[in-house]
Each structure stands twice: as C-alpha cells, then as structure tokens.
Write a structure and sequence with these properties.
The complex is a heterodimer of chains A (about 450) and B (about 325).
Chain A lengths: L15 H29 L7 H7 L5 H11 L3 E5 L6 H6 L2 E5 L5 H7 L9 H11 L4 H5 L2 E5 L3 H10 L5 E4 L8 H22 L5 H24 L8 H10 L5 H21 L10 E6 L9 H8 L5 E6 L18 H13 L14 H13 L4 E7 L3 H5 L1 H10 L4 E6 L6 H20 L1
Parallel strand pairs in A: 1-2, 1-3, 3-4, 5-6, 5-7, 7-8
Helix pairs in contact in A: 2-11, 5-6, 6-8, 9-14, 10-12, 13-18
Chain B lengths: L1 H30 L4 H20 L3 H18 L2 H5 L2 H15 L9 H26 L6 H6 L8 H4 L6 E2 L6 E3 L4 E3 L4 H7 L3 H21 L9 H11 L9 E5 L9 H5 L6 H4 L3 E3 L9 H5 L6 E5 L2 E5 L11
Helix pairs in contact in B: 1-2, 3-11, 5-10, 6-11, 9-10
The chains are: A alpha/beta (about 450), B alpha+beta (about 325).
C-alpha cells in the first residue's frame, strides 16, 4: 500500500533532502529544549522528588520510549495515535495496540504548517501538520492509524489533511452532549471505531480483554487522582512536574506509568508528613484553563508562572492535556459487552468539558469543573490561556469570567502563539498578575 | 412425616443460606468496592424475606406491617422498595443470573418508563376498587367481605410484593398441605382468589410467574416501575402536607458533578432526576432508594445519602484515593 502513488490532496511533495534537513535541525533543537525544560524544572524545586527521574527520561520523545515502541512494533504490535481526549484508550488497549497521543507542541514546525493552512489557524493544528511534513514526531510516524475526533474546526480539517499520509479513523462527537439522540450517535460511533480498531490491529476485542483494559485504566485513574489529591494541600510538588507526569501518561506504557506514579505519590506522602514543601506554602496558587499545552515546546506558561518573581505555583488546571486526562473513570455496572461499550462512550462524551459542546446552560459542566477545582485546590487565581486561533476557548472566556467573578476569583486572559518571541512581554503580564495575587494572599 | 422432614430441612437450608449470604457479603464487601451497597441490600432483603415468613402467618401481623410501611415511608420514602421488598429481590436475582449469562439488558424508552410510572396510580385505584365491585356478588355482604373473604382484601394487593418464597398457607403454586406451607410468589394468592376455577388459576399463576421473570430478564426491575405498592408508598409522600416529612434524600453537589452519566446508566428503574437535577435534594417517587447511583458515582462527595440533614453514605472515589492532606 505504501508504494502506491496516491495523489496528495493537501500535503506538498517536499524533496527528501529538505525533509531530512529540517527534521534534524528541529530534532536537535527539540532535544535541547527538552533537556533545558527539565533543567529549569530541577532548578525551580531544588529538592525535586527522586521519582521524577523516571518521568524526565520518558519525557524525551527521541529516547527510551521511542525505542520501546519500535521494538514492540517489530514484534507485531500496532500503534494507534490519537488527537483528542475523546479517543477510547480502553478499546485501543483491548485490541493489544499501543495508544499514543500525537498532538504536537513544537513551535518550529508550526511555521511549516503555514505552507498548507493560513496563519489564523490554531497553532496546535499547524504544528501537527508541520511535524508530519518533516516526519518529526516519532509517535505520529510510528502509529499505524490515527484516531481523530472532530471536535473543533481545526481538528476536523486536520484529519482530512493527515489522511494524505496516514490512515485516519474519524469519530464525530455530537455538539450537544445530553440529548438522547446525541448519546445514541456517539454510542454508534464507539461501535464503529471498535470495528475499525479491530480491523487495523487484526485483533478481536473480546469482553474479557476489554474488561482487563478498563481495569488497567481504572488503576491508572486511581494513581492519577492520588497525585492530584496530593496537590490539594500545601504544594509538595511543583505544578510543572505534575503536569509532566500527567502528560507522560499519553505516550507511556500505562501499567508502568501507574506504578511509577504510585511510587512518586508514596514519596510525596512522606514529604507531606515531614512538611517538606516544594515552595513556600503561601505562594499564590494558580489554576490554568484553556487551550491544551503540549510537551516539549509549549511549556512556556507553566515555566513563566513558576519561575516568576513573585513565584506562583500551579496547583491544577483544566486542560485536556493534563488534569482532565485520566480524571474520569469508566464506571461499569454490568460487565457485559454492551454495558462496557456504553460506559466507555459515556465517559468520553458526557464527562468531557471540551468547549466544542454547546448547550442552553452555557457549557455548565466546564464551569462546574473549574469551580470545583478552584474550591478544592484553594486556588487564588485563574489564568485563562488561549493560543491565537483557538476560537472555542477564546469565545468561552467571558462566560468563565462571569462565573468566576461571582466567586471573586481573579481571572487573567493570556493569549499567545506558538513562538518564543513573546516570552518577555508575557513574563511582565504574568508577574503583574502574580503580584496582585500575592497581595491578595497576604491581605 | 415426610413433609415434616422437608420442612425441617428447609429451615436448615434457610439457616445455612443466611450464614453463607453473610459470609459472602463480607467477602464481597472487602473485594469489590463498587458493589458494597448492592450486596448489603441483598443480604438485608434475604433476612427480611425470612422474617416475613412468620409475619405472613396472620393477617393481623400483615396489617401491622402495612401500617409500619406507610409510617416509615412517610419519613424514608421508598426505602422499603430498595431494602426490604422480596419481589425486588427476586428480580435482582434474575438480573444476577442474566449477568452470569453475559447478556445485556434493555432500557425502556424514557417516555414509556414515565408513562408506566404514571400508570401506577390507576393500577392502584383499580386494585382497590375491584373488591368493592365484586363484593356485591359475595354472600357475606360488603363490610365483612372487604376484610375477611378471600377475594376482597383490598389491602392484600399492597403487601403482595412482600410475599416470600415460602408462606405458611396453602395458596401457592405448589402446596405442602401437611406442613401447611406452600411455595408462593407475589400476587399469586390474589390471582388465585380472583380466578373463578382452580384449574384455570394454576396456568394463570404460572403465566404470571413466567412473565415477571421474563420481563425482568430483559429490563431490570420491570415490575417496580408500575408496582401498586410503590405507588401507594409514593402517594404518601405526594401529599402537600407531608412535604416536610421525608428525611431521607439523595443529595447532589452540583459542582462536583461532571455529568458523566454513570448514575443514569446504573439506575435499575431509570430515574433521570439524579442526572438531570442541577443540585440539591432529589425528591422523586420514581426513586426506590437502592443507592446504586451513590455507590457508583466516582466523584468523592458528589452524591450523598442524607438522613435528617446528616450524611449517612456518600459517593467516594471507588478507585481508592490516598489519605493525605
């Protein structure tokens, strides 16, 4: 199939030499950025938990995990990539495939994406297209198929553009969550994607396997929630570290990730008892919401917050790249195939707080999620992070602001791009906000 | 003699079964956190069913039971349906058997379910009026017929779901006259007393047993959706003057709810209010207080069972969270 000359609808035919050249440049830069980010994270919290060592290693895109996946692929395992949180990881695991999230966080490749789509398009999309053009992302390259959920406009067209060079399985979520017909549609989508996953992997998803997969994910959720619960009290772990742990779950072997996260939590619990805080307990506590942030490049905002003067600490977020990832478990009433599939489809659709949904109550779920997060994590302020072109998140800002004003929680709207050029002015803005929060905390 | 033996062994079986159920419940309580309340409920209901065997020995006791139920219902809602009713237990056993067979269940369409819930009241009225109508044909005359003669016990329909599997009278499908017990089933004695000829009664009763088992095999707790007992219980809480009375509620904290829909899916009688209501106390007569939703809700403290304002039991992270600050 690979050798068949397929006419490409979007992707330009780049000469091999150019691809290799750009790829190696970006790759070298990226490895440097990863190392640099980790270095800075270590610097911010001098007594960083020892268990973070593992996550530092696994966070390298071009390291251990890439080799592992290549080795497993050689043994006949398939890799299925996915973009949005809507992709049913349980089904992928049940089909003996490796799920990896393939959204791109590379700043450099977003400029390459400009050759295909206009600059106004969300940089996450542009960057992903760019990464594909130069075959940069190891996980995207290794995946046999990509599940693309048609959430926002960018994702919708991205699946079309990517189908030039990858097998793309699309899932179309309804835009209204809680009507009977929308759930019905999504249940049908789930059945269809199950059949497609079975076709790609060549493995049948049996009830037994699916149950095992669901239980694996429930265990992961347990570890995940344990980590988040630890962040409720005085900060024992810096927000960036926790964010990295959360995000590694999207490409790591989930069983191993669970073990390592539990080990990290054990260590953190000891620290709670010894009252060893990662930063002074009166540091302003910040929650981020908005556009997802992807490792490695788009680590700008959390880095700014935690390295700012006055320092802030990230206690939680409402990002589908971090705190929302494994928060919701699949709850199964009866372990029959039907109920398991329904359970999975409900977990991905109904519990989601993606702004792609609309309802007369104004996406109340997201507001509730945020309010709950703010109350439970005793946050002092919220930074509403939006990249230019991310329409849905940008449009929901005033709604969120109104709701949070009622709780008199300050919200700060921060829009940026996939670029390093605005770090300086962003720093000023973040520091001004943190200054205000510090004053409020002291007050 | 031989019936005596069977009776004795039956008692042993019941005793042994109880012990086994207890041990099993404790084991499952430890093992599966998502089924704690469900298993506890099965245990409580088995005990209640056995207790009811003795209550069924005399009508006076039954009347007392009925009064207790209505009084308790005033304060606890349909608690009885979830924690006592043996008929519900039979249907839950059918569900368990279905789960073992790995067959899925079907949800009734919401409008039909709602219609059935509304149909409870006409059904109840029908059951109460019929004895009055039939009493005209009785030789005993109206007042005594209402209370004593077989077909005219208007209130028996209300306690019919309470009928345990073994009752101390000879009105069941299979009777053991020497031991004056029979294998029974809810509503059977009523069907039997209403049907004119005995040879017609048996097939009718078997048909009823078959159809209730079959329907509850397909749809969970099918009978409960239009059960006249449930309706009578619900009516008590419907009176305006009694709005203050119920002290047992399911309470929902709006902010913790992510609307993941688990509560909607696990509910055996398809109550939508828990899912749809934004927050606060859930007061619907459709809910039979099985607390399955509270048990399955994965968000700590989102759903609570509140008794007189105090939280008795609340949804918790059944994935086991860490106990730290």
């Amino acid at each position: 199939m690979k050798n068949q000359p397929v006419e490409k609808k979007y992707m330009p035919e780049l000469p091999r030499k150019e691809i290799d050249e750009i790829q190696s440049t970006v790759k070298t830069a990226s490895i440097k950025v990863i190392a640099d980010n980790i270095e800075r994270m270590k610097k911010t919290s001098p007594n960083r938990p020892a268990a973070m060592q593992y996550f530092d290693e696994i966070s390298n895109f071009f390291g251990q995990r890439q080799k592992e996946i290549i080795a497993e692929k050689a043994k006949g395992k398939k890799v299925i990539g996915y973009f949005c949180m809507f992709a049913p990881i349980e089904l992928i695991l049940a089909a003996d495939a490796i799920p990896v999230r393939v959204n791109s966080g590379w700043y450099d490749t977003s400029k390459l994406g400009d050759r295909i789509v206009p600059v106004e398009v969300c940089p996450v999309i542009r960057s992903t297209i760019g990464a594909k053009m130069v075959e940069l992302s190891p996980y995207l390259e290794l995946s046999d198929a990509v599940i693309s959920t048609l959430t926002c406009d960018g994702m919708t067209k991205l699946s079309e553009i990517l189908s030039d060079c990858k097998k793309v399985l699309t899932m179309s979520p309804p835009r209204v969550k809680d009507s009977a017909q929308s759930l019905h549609l999504w249940n049908e989508e789930m059945k269809a994607i199950k059949a497609q996953i079975e076709e790609v992997t060549g493995n049948k998803i049996t009830p037994k396997k699916l149950r095992a997969a669901i239980e694996t994910m429930q265990k992961a959720t347990k570890a995940f929630r344990r980590l988040q619960d630890l962040r409720k009290g005085n900060p024992v772990i810096m927000g960036r570290d926790a964010m990295l742990v959360n995000q590694t779950a999207t490409w790591d072997n989930i069983t191993r990730w669970t073990e390592k996260t539990d080990a990290l939590c054990d260590e953190l619990e000891k620290r709670v008892q010894q009252k060893q805080w990662a930063c002074p307990p009166d540091t302003p506590r910040v929650v981020i919401t908005g556009t997802p942030m992807f490792w490695p490049d788009n680590w700008k905002l959390p880095t700014l917050i935690e390295e700012a003067n006055p320092q802030g600490v990230l206690v939680g977020d409402e990002l589908c790249s971090s705190d929302r990832l494994l928060y919701d478990p699949v709850g199964i009433d009866e372990w029959t195939m039907d109920d398991m599939l329904n359970g999975i489809s409900e977990r991905y659709l109904m519990a989601s707080t993606c702004p792609c949904f609309t309802s007369s109550d104004g996406n109340e779920d997201r507001i509730n999620w945020l309010i709950n997060k703010i109350k439970e994590f005793k946050a002092n302020g919220v930074i509403y992070y939006v990249v230019r072109g991310c329409m849905l998140y940008a449009m929901e800002y005033s709604r969120v602001k109104k709701a949070l004003d009622k709780l008199s929680i300050p919200v700060y709207y921060l829009d940026t791009e996939y670029t390093r050029e605005d770090v300086g002015q962003m720093k000023t803005r973040v520091e001004a906000f943190l200054e205000m929060l510090t004053a409020r905390v002291e007050f | 003699m031989s019936w005596q033996l069977i009776g004795d062994s039956l008692e042993w079986v019941i005793g042994g079964g109880l012990t086994l159920a207890g041990i099993l419940s404790i084991l499952i309580w430890k093992r599966d956190k998502t089924k704690r309340v469900s298993d506890l409920r099965i245990f409580i209901r088995i005990v209640a069913m056995i207790g009811m065997y003795f209550l069924f020995a005399s009508p006076a006791w039954l009347l007392a039971v009925l009064i207790t139920i209505i009084a308790v219902t005033l304060f606890f809602g349909r608690f009885f349906c979830g924690f006592v009713c043996p008929f519900g237990l039979y249907m839950d056993f059918v569900t368990l058997a279905r789960e073992k067979l790995r067959k899925g269940h079907r949800r009734l369409p919401e409008n039909i379910n709602r219609a059935l819930h509304l149909a409870r009241y006409p059904i109840l009225i029908f059951f109460i009026i019929v004895p009055f109508l039939l009493s005209g044909f009785s030789s005993l005359g109206l007042p005594s017929a209402l209370y004593f003669s077989g077909p005219f016990k208007a209130w028996t329909v209300l306690i019919a779901p309470l009928e345990p599997l073994v009752v101390p009278w000879g009105n069941g499908i299979i009777g053991f006259p020497e031991y004056s017990t029979s294998i029974s089933y809810p509503y059977l004695s009523i069907i039997r007393s209403y049907s004119p000829a005995t040879d017609f009664a048996l097939p009718l009763m078997l048909f009823f047993v078959a159809i209730t088992i079959a329907t509850s095999f397909v749809t969970r707790r099918f009978w409960c959706r239009f059960c006249p007992t449930g309706a009578s219980i619900a009516i008590v809480n419907k009176f305006r003057g009694f709005k203050w009375a119920p002290i047992l509620h399911i309470n929902k904290v709006e902010e913790k709810c992510t609307k993941c829909g688990i509560c909607k899916r696990v509910c055996p009688v398809q109550v939508l209010d828990v899912y749809e209501k934004k927050g606060g106390d859930i007061k619907t007569s459709m809910c039979m207080h099985c607390f399955r939703c509270v048990e399955m809700c994965p968000y700590e403290g989102c759903l609570k069972v509140k008794m007189a304002g105090k939280t008795v039991f609340q949804s918790r992270n059944w994935l086991e969270p860490s106990k730290s600050e």
